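On clarity, I found the account of how folds are encoded harder to follow than it need be. Since the whole study asks how a given chain folds, the encoding of that fold should be made plain. For illustration, here is how one protein appears when written out as sequence plus structure tokens:

:::
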Amino acid sequence: MAEPSTTAVTVVATTGIGLAAMFPGVDGNALIGAFAGATLFVMSARELTLWVRGVYLLISLIMGYLAAPELVSHLPIQATGVAGFLGGLLCITVTAPLVRRLEGVDLIRLIKGGTK
């Protein structure tokens, strides 16, 4: 059974997303799709702390929503909800390993053309 605090956070987040989707100018399909993709990623990342998962949820939600129109225009996807889902799901999944690989790189040396 879920903890009461987890259930409360889920209910508040879902209600907030639903209300935000009703504002003019907000693509409700993309917003709900991005929320679903971000939630799926966060729920599958059990090795992360709750605090990190919360931050990743927020980042994935925002970037999934912003990526939806771009994915619709560049991929054979017609629905912004599906594009938002993919954007929210893949945002952290793709970028986190890239950030980890760049942590040990000396960018100045790389720009100057050094290999050592």
Observations:
- The chain has one domain: 4-112.
- The two ends are 53 Å apart (CA to CA).
- The first helix runs from residue 4 to 20.
